[in-house]
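Quick log. Single chain, no ligands specified.
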Amino acid sequence: MQLNITFRQFGSSDSLKEYAREKVERVNRLLDRAGEAHVVLSLERHLHHADITIHSGAWVLRGREKSDDMYASIDLAMDKIERQLRRYRDKLKSHHGKEKVHHRQDLVKVRHDVFEVHEPEETAEASAPAAQTPVAESGVARLVRTTHLAIQSLSVDDAVMQMNLMNNDFYVFQNQQSQALSIVYRRKEGGFGLIEPHLPDAPVAATGT
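-> predicted structure:
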């Protein structure tokens, strides 16, 4: 397996590299078609983030976690990947040899931007009478993360499986049945939902008799 490890917002560590490598290679032994893995370790607001992605054929497994300790974050992220791998291991094997081979450059890609909004902190002036205080500015949105998603042609069941393998709350795909760009998402009440475009039926042209 080809493994890439990236450090962001803090210096590279040989001990962390070796620890992440051992964890990923342990999961690699459970996969029939492990291709490459990418580990991103970053420090944000005093929290240690671990983002681990493993490719197995056309499938992608992903775990993301954060904690006060980078070793613990790696453990938690890998635990997520291992849980989904054990859940779908038999189904992944059944897809071996049946999946279509996609060239990544030929896949349609969409961009997913994640923003967070910081509301202005309340100050002593803000608690003064309205006539004596200026109007508070609205919250400012800051781009947190951008992800480029390659769109695959899948059945709805396979799209749900891929969503779970990536530990995501949604997944964008091309519905094999309708050929439409669709989204499956996790519902708070349990289960999942499906969103896809619906075009109204074209009006029937009147014909003379």
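The radius of gyration is 23 Å.
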